[in-house]
Amino acid sequence: MGGHRLFDATYNMMGRGLDVSSYRHSLISANVANVDTIHYKPRDLDFNDTLQKAMAGPPPREMALTHARHLDTGPPPDPIRASVYDNADAYHLDSVDIDEEMSNLVENNMKYRTTAEMMMRKMTILRHAIAEGGS
Asked: Which positions ≥6 away from 36 have C-beta within 8 Å?
């Protein structure tokens, strides 16, 4: 009965979704912080495209290799990459559109919170299943 794991592909997808949202939040925060910085080019990533690329790769290591005799469970996950806005004018103060950044921040926050809520509900189901099987 191979293939049964405690944490299935849904946990993996939600975990990577949280990673992508967290990274995007740091990009948007940097854009807002540098709204008055000359020569700054804002950066962002496409959430859906980045998540699809992250899911297409091999699953990340679930354990750290701390000894030479530990079994290697696969490569580390690929780092998430951002892209620079091509249409940004880095030589003027208005290279960052603060309205667009705030809109992106709200959208990203909603995705993060929704994914975190789904993860908590799945953990509640797992906790319920464990409690029922123990008595």
From this structure: 93
**Dist CA 106 CA 116 (whole Å):** 15
pTM recorded for the entire structure: 0.73
Give the model confidence (pLDDT) of 50-66 as tens digits. 888 888 876 666 667 78
- Identify whether the C-beta of residue 47 lies closer than 8 Å to the C-beta of residue 108: yes
Which alpha helices (DSSP H) does the chain contain, by range?
9-33, 47-56, 98-133
Only one residue has tokens 């789904």, namely 118
Going by C-alpha positions, the residue among 24, 104, 5, 23 that lies closest to residue 62 is 5
Dihedral angle over CA of 110, 114, 117, 118, nearest 10: -170
